[in-house]
Amino acid sequence: MIAAAIDIGSNKISVLVGEIDAGDKLNVIALGTAPSAGVKKGSISDLDQAAAAIKKALSQAEEQINGQIGSAFVSISSRHAKSINSHGAVSVLTRDNKIDEYEIGRALEEARQVGTPEGYEVIHTTPQNFIVDGQSGIQNPEGMLGYRLEVDAYVVMGLKSNIMNIQRCLERINVEIDGTVVAPLAAGKAVATKEEMEVGVAVVDVGEDSTEIGIFLNNGLWYTSAIDIAGGLLTSDIATILKVPRDEAKRLKEKYGTVLAQNQEGEVTAKGFGANRNVTVSKQYITDILRARTEELFEYVLREIKRSGYDELLTAGVVFTGGTSKIPGFLELAQKMFPANLPIRLGAPIRTTGEHGRKASSPEFARVVGTLRWGLQGHDRPEVRESSGSSGPFWKRARDFLKPLLPY
User: 84 vs 52, 87, 90, 130, CA distance in Å?
Assistant: First the structure.
């Protein structure tokens, strides 16, 4: 089954087309990117500008498949979401009291019936623990016998207006939404291994406007959070302190930026604001600026992990991903600042193949890769109801998506 995914970021738009092969690898058929516009802090700020930017990335991908993309899965920022722990319980109604997918779906649906705040809608219900006739600690009750099925679940609710604005934006370029996934779940799907998600891991996606944190245990999403310190703030620090345009600050960060190297020698010159004003600065000063803000980022991430209450359960530690995690010295600085007994690694999308698979395996594409994998894998578990962004049964939408790709 072939499908598409779109990541609407504040720095760039990414479009991915692919399918899951027999070895559970994501075969990437097409990858399109374009500079972002009309997007601020994970939400649409200008429909026309955002639609035009998405269209550019979409057109790149469509050229690679020689067809038209009519629908896609879309990620949404957790900064526009609320979460709650919930509980659902049902009586098993099958004649032989055998628990099947339908009974599991009923229990999850009961867990979804929480007091949703006004303006929000449920987009994910992740099981944390199943209970069969009082026996807890069950990860997958399918096939078991019992009279009563209960589930402890983590329910994620998305801001309706944010989802609707994304939907309206895509409608302008004739693209329907197959489903929405919260960004930390998407990032985790891309960069964390099954064993890491089983034993406990925090996936930290450092984007342009926000850093999003997802904590996974027992193969499920248990906690999400977002903080405002991210890659864009590192660029802003250079621009503000040196009084240079943002584009020039971004160039300095990308060409000379590191957060660990000490006693760097040499100076660089940048074009500043004002008439014929150039700024000469040492490479070490650029490092000091970037390091200070990155240290603050790590402090906030560690604080959020502790606030979750799951910090002692992260056997696999923390996986950092996102474009900013590629800055030289990022991993080494994280290892210095986080507890010595907490494993730390950088994460790029894993299990990607195909003509564009190598490019898609960069940390900056973690979210779009995970969004596509989430969609192709059937949303983890059957859910009784989909979000309002959906437009019909998934198999029908996937079939409609395939039509333009078929040679007949």
Answer: 36, 10, 20, 17
Give the residue ranges of DSSP H helices in 261-309. Answer: 283-308
Res. 167: pLDDT tops 90:
yes
Structure-block tokens of residue 405: 């790709």
- Rounded to an integer, what distance in angstroms lies between the CA atom of residue 280 and that of residue 267? 7
3 state SS of 190 = helix
In CATH terms, the fold of domain 194-349 is Nucleotidyltransferase; domain 5 (3.30.420)
Q: Which CATH number fits domain 80-159: 3.30.1490.110, 3.40.190.10, 3.40.50.2000, 3.40.50.880?
A: 3.30.1490.110
0.90 surpassed by pTM: no
Structure tokens at 372: 């596509």
pLDDT tens, residue by residue, 267-313: 999 999 988 889 999 999 999 999 999 999 999 999 999 999 999 99
Q: Can you give the pLDDT at residue 407?
A: 33
